[in-house]
Amino acid sequence: MSQLDTKTRILDAGEHLFARDGFHNTSLRTITSLAKANLAAVNYHFGSKEALLRAVIERRLLPLNQLRKEQIDAVLAEAAATGTAPSAKSLLRAFIEPTLAFRSAGPGAQDFIALVGRSMSEPDETVRNCFIGLVLPNFRLFFESLQRALPQLPTAVLMARVQFTLGAMSHVMCTSNKPPINISAAPQPLDDDELAEQLLQFVSTGLEAPQ
Amino acid sequence: MSQLDTKTRILDAGEHLFARDGFHNTSLRTITSLAKANLAAVNYHFGSKEALLRAVIERRLLPLNQLRKEQIDAVLAEAAATGTAPSAKSLLRAFIEPTLAFRSAGPGAQDFIALVGRSMSEPDETVRNCFIGLVLPNFRLFFESLQRALPQLPTAVLMARVQFTLGAMSHVMCTSNKPPINISAAPQPLDDDELAEQLLQFVSTGLEAPQ
DNA sequence: GTCTATAGATTGATAGAC
DNA sequence: GTCTATCAATCTATAGAC
Q1: Is residue B39, in this structure, part of any structural domain at all?
Q2: CATH number at residue B132
């Protein structure tokens, strides 16, 4: 971490600490101390604590959104080429897989995914507004594609089911960071890929369920 | 609110503000100001800010746990009487319905449910430890009953699916408080009962899906 | 039980030397 | 760009009068 420039080290430290302790429970002093930077460096490079949060989120969310958009567009193009409706499951895969796979992009990426998962149900307006503005276009594209895949479902019902899907997904993302609530002494928990596959199976079954 | 005693007014105000703004983003001054009480009253009645949080959670979570336990026990007893395994869907209903129905228990109850939903993926140890200790026995009973309903599923797979279920449920609980992310301009969103029924349908389909 | 007053620590932000 | 030093505000918690 210490051979990178100060701005990057602060971003990395903020990402880690915001994800682990929450935005309001993390002080600039803790961040700069972990980043081995001076306290004043945060305001010099970013302007404020809130602007640092925005920078932390944007750094990885913009590429992730791009990736999800490409995958969804590919599914839509494939469907258009064959003259059929896209399948709900392939759209879900296009949306979920890049998100969960993102955790392997690096050590900080896993913290980031946990931060994003938590932001979906964030009470605080600071975090919430920052996050929602960035993901909304992506979520809309996803939702409208699903409407084409499942035209028989009333909009309100589809919206509810998408909400359940995002909830299940964000919960997995939150807990990818730390041990989940230890409900049962399972002999061998699933690894990341199996968990992603199980999630896809779970939500696509629920989404396509008859009314 | 103002004809109740001070202790209750502080509990109500804390419940509302912790749910709306988060624990660390809520100050004792904001709480006592809303409760029309003196700043020192919190430490007099509860001892500390953290002890107030514990009191806020315990006040409603203990009765809710009791309610869920009774419902699950009733399903198990019914199954034992007929000599069959309990159905996954009836267990899910026993667990989910009291939780969501709790929102109608009063104006503060809805805030409380949002607080609980968020606590399931809480980054902060203060909130997380307090919450987990209280719900763990209840969650274990739920999980072990499900194992009897779905014995063909490997433990690790069932655990993953229960995790998805809790995620979907907690997301609904979080957003029962405030408008959800406005993904689509839906003509008429579902009301609370329809949403609960849709959730039950969604998670029971996913939980019972073939491997 | 309720109040005022304040201790004691921590916070985000900034001014100014280098 | 990086540093020291510090300001002004805020926080939880408590002591002590009533």
Answers
A1: no
A2: 1.10.357
Q: Is residue B145 part of a domain?
A: yes
Q: Does A31 reside within a domain?
A: no
Alpha carbon distance B141, B27 (integer Å): 36
* Residue A179 located in a structural domain: yes
- CA B131 to C1' D8, in angstroms, rounded, equals 36
> Is B167 in Cβ contact with A123 (below 8 Å)?
no
Q: How far is the CA of A85 from the C1' of C7 (A)?
A: 69
Q: Decide if pLDDT at A203 tops 70.
A: yes
| Sequence-ordered list of residues with C-beta below 8 angstroms from that of A58, at least 6 positions apart, any chain | A134
Nearest to A203 by CA among B134, B51, B160: B160
B89 near A CB under 8 A:
no
**Angle, vertex CA B188, rays to CA B185 and CA B191, nearest 5:** 125
pLDDT digits (tens, 9 = 90+) for A148-192: 999 999 999 999 999 999 999 999 999 877 766 778 876 788 999
DSSP B98-126: HHHHGGGG-HHHHHHHHHHHHHTT---HH
pTM of the model: 0.95
Cα-trace Rg, chain A: 19
Q: CA-to-CA distance for B16 and B14, rounded, in angstroms?
A: 5
Half-sphere exposure of residue B76, counting CA atoms within 13 Å on the CB side? 15
Q: Which residue of A has its CA nearest to B144?
A: A184
Q: What's the CA–C1' distance between A9 and D7, in Å?
A: 27
Q: Which amino acid is at A35?
A: A
Strand D nucleotides where any atom sits below 7 Å of a protein CB: 1-6, 10-16
B163 Cβ under 8 Å from any chain A Cβ: yes
Contact indicator for A161, A88 with CB cutoff of 8 Å: no
Position B160 pLDDT exceeds 90: yes
User: Where in the sequence is the domain holding A99, given as residue range(s)?
Assistant: 60-207
Indicate yes or no: CB of A164 within 8 angstroms of CB of B189: no
Q: For residues A91 and B183, which has the higher predicted lDDT (pLDDT)?
A: A91
What's the number of domains chain B is made of?
1
